[in-house]
Design brief:
This protein is an alpha+beta fold. The protein has two helices and eight strands; from the N terminus they run βββββαβαββ.
């Protein structure tokens, strides 16, 4: 099996026993990102779904950039929302990051997320 862990200081450090991302067979599997500022490794101060969504997507961008790829390489995302009523606001921000050929996506409402954030997003990207 071709499996290699990937880490960068440009995105938040893992807060548990997992990798920021795993590279395998031409794909990059990104662990779920929450609204942590990579410079402080602390949650952002804002409790706004808009601000948290932007920070999460910026963290995903940083991981991709560290592998010399971009959001255009993302083929699948999964969004975990604490409240599905936030979906319209999340969708609006999400659309500003994925402008052309957005990836396949699943969105689910969950009862609780790490550090009680409002959103977590995981992604799969191609390395080519």
């Amino acid at each position: 099996m071709n499996k290699k862990s990937f880490q960068t200081d440009k995105a938040p450090r893992a807060i548990g026993p997992y990798s920021q991302a795993i590279e395998s067979n031409g794909l990059l599997f990104l662990s779920g990102q929450i609204a942590i500022d990579p410079t402080t490794n602390q949650l952002i101060a804002s409790s706004s779904i808009v601000d948290q969504t932007k920070r999460v997507l910026q963290n995903i961008e940083a991981l991709l950039k560290a592998k010399n790829i971009s959001l255009s390489h993302v083929v699948k995302t999964t969004l975990f929302l604490k409240n599905m009523s936030d979906f319209p606001a999340v969708n609006e921000i999400y659309g500003t990051f994925f402008k052309e050929t957005p990836p396949a996506r699943s969105t689910v409402e969950v009862s609780r997320l790490p550090k009680d954030v409002l959103i977590e997003i995981e992604a799969i990207a191609t390395l080519s």
